[in-house]
Specification:
Blueprint (H helix, E strand, L loop, with lengths): L7 H4 L7 E8 L4 E5 L4 E15 L2 E5 L3 E5 L5 E16 L12 E4 L2 H10 L9 H16 L2 E2 L3 E2 L4 H12 L7 H8 L3 H12 L3 H18 L4 H7 L5 H12 L3 H10 L1
Antiparallel strand pairs: 1-6, 2-6, 3-4, 3-5, 3-6, 4-9, 5-7, 7-8
Helix pairs in contact: 2-3, 8-9
């Protein structure tokens, strides 16, 4: 298919092809509000960067990964800068063997090439060759490694209020004690429950939120120095060192992945 726009009637019915694949590009920001459909969906980019959210968390997704969302799960998405991407819609009965919860999977070359080939199919029933390729795509989704690439959100309403405020403004440098007073929770309780509900200490979670926002800003072509200062780092070199330790490349080198992919 030439673009990512599909008739909602196709994604909200499980009869028809086992998979429906769309692929396309857009030079401006692409955004979809919170929605759900009865088909499961795998989506990601082959160029550029997207942010995808569900109730449990938010992912900033580079071209090396894709996000799987099971049927009927509410989700939203937004691209950053020029974007080229794909979406695979899987009939609900065939999702039984796929991950039961939203997750980030590492893309294999086989999955990428199979999807891009399927995106060129005309709409309608699959022939025998199409059914075989659809089977390969489902096998790859089912067996691809799951990576903890996202930003998990806590369930407690007080902690969730803090997390959403920090996700909106990762540069906010209030201390844990300040946030505890703001959300009317004890500082020790905040610290303990944050680890229990997200798997991260409060400090590590906030650092992760800043780094994921940095990826978005890199994709939007924001200068590295401005990113560092806007996100509250004391110096650009502090930001660059932390980014390199986390992602294995400097911010400038990582930015090239969005362009070259």
């Amino acid at each position: 298919m030439a673009d990512l726009t599909l008739d909602p009637a196709l994604t909200n019915r499980s009869d028809g092809p086992v998979i429906i694949v769309a692929a396309g590009s857009q030079e401006t920001v692409r955004s979809s509000g919170a929605h759900s459909h009865c088909r499961g969906q795998l989506f990601g980019s082959t160029r550029g960067l997207i942010t995808i959210g569900v109730d449990e968390g938010v992912w900033v997704v580079p071209t090396t990964h894709a996000i799987w969302v099971p049927p009927h799960r509410v989700h939203w998405a937004r691209s950053h800068g020029p974007f080229q991407g794909f979406a695979v819609y899987v009939a609900e009965p065939d999702c039984a063997v796929l991950p039961a919860a939203p997750c980030s999977i590492r893309m294999s070359g086989l999955l990428r090439e199979a999807m891009l080939r399927a995106a060129r199919w005309p709409a309608g029933p699959l022939d025998a060759r199409g059914e075989r390729l659809a089977g390969v795509i489902l096998d790859e989704i089912a067996t691809s490694p799951v990576d903890a690439l996202g930003l998990p959100l806590p369930r407690d309403a007080r902690l969730l209020r803090i997390a959403r405020a920090l996700a909106d403004d990762p540069a906010d440098d209030r201390t844990l004690e300040d946030w505890a007073r703001w959300a009317a929770i004890g500082a020790r309780s905040l610290s303990r429950h944050f680890v229990a509900e997200t798997g991260f200490t409060f400090t590590a979670w906030r650092q992760r939120a800043r780094l994921l926002r940095a990826l978005e800003m890199l994709a939007d072509d924001v200068p590295v120095t401005r990113i560092a200062l806007d996100l509250g780092y004391s110096t650009p070199s502090t930001f660059i060192d932390l980014f390199r330790r986390t992602f294995g490349a400097t911010p400038a080198a990582y930015r090239q992945r969005f362009v070259a992919a």
